[in-house]
Amino acid sequence: MSESLSLRAGLSRAETYAELWPQIRAVVADEPDLVAKMANVAAALKESFAFLWVGFYRVVGDELVLGPFQGPLACSRIARGRGVCGAAWSEARTIVVPDVDKFPGHIACSSASRSEIVVPFFAPTGEVVFVLDVDSERLDDFGEADREGLERLRGLFA
């Protein structure tokens, strides 16, 4: 197992995801435990992009419950449909928010968060089983490269 990531300097966001993908895949490929996979994915993303917060929320009953994450303290539970995470779960789609202050019902777990992307992950039945939440201290920090790069991670959890 790798103890560190190897990424070239000066890459675009898309190029960084492309270099990061095989390294994350190698780290989690033989790991059967979901929590261990989530923990290493969160750490790899935080280390590679220096995002404010990277973590997972698991669907438990009618709530999202905090899972492995990297960053400042976070909200422990989020109701379905509330905030960006709850909306991504409820709508079963990736949501990119350029300015969290303009998102109706945004839950401010950290006042430093300025933009956010949330990606739902699905069971074979099509139900959302957890979401990946990434927050940035910069406005409009997430684009199509992030959506594609983060959605590609779904294949690691299939």
Question: How would you describe what is shown here?
Answer:
By secondary structure, this protein is an alpha+beta fold. It has one domain (about 15-155): Beta-Lactamase, CATH 3.30.450. The protein has helices at about 15-30, 35-50, 85-90, 145-150, and strands spanning about 55-60, 65-70, 75-80, 95, 115-120, 130-135. Strands 3-2-1-6-5-4 form a six-stranded antiparallel sheet, with helices on both faces. It is globular.
Topology diagram in text:
Elements: H1 13-28, H2 34-49, E1 53-60, E2 63-70, E3 77-79, H3 83-91, E4 95-97, E5 115-122, E6 128-136, H4 144-152
Antiparallel strand pairs: 1-2, 1-6, 2-3, 4-5, 5-6
CATH class: Alpha Beta
Report the major sheet. 6 strands, antiparallel
Radius of gyration: 15 Å
Number of helices, where a helix is a run of at least 4 consecutive DSSP H or I residues: 4
Strand order, largest beta sheet: 3-2-1-6-5-4
Catalogue the unreliable spans. none
Number of strands: 6
Gross CATH architecture = 2-Layer Sandwich
> Can you tell me the CATH topology?
Beta-Lactamase
Order of helices and strands: HHEEEHEEEH
By CATH's scheme, which homologous superfamily applies?
Answer: GAF domain
CA distance, first residue to last residue: 21 Å
Give a short overview.
This protein has helices spanning 13-28, 34-49, 83-91, 144-152; strands at residues 53-60, 63-70, 77-79, 95-97, 115-122, 128-136. With 158 residues, it is an alpha+beta fold. The protein has one domain (13-157): GAF domain (Beta-Lactamase, 2-Layer Sandwich), CATH 3.30.450.
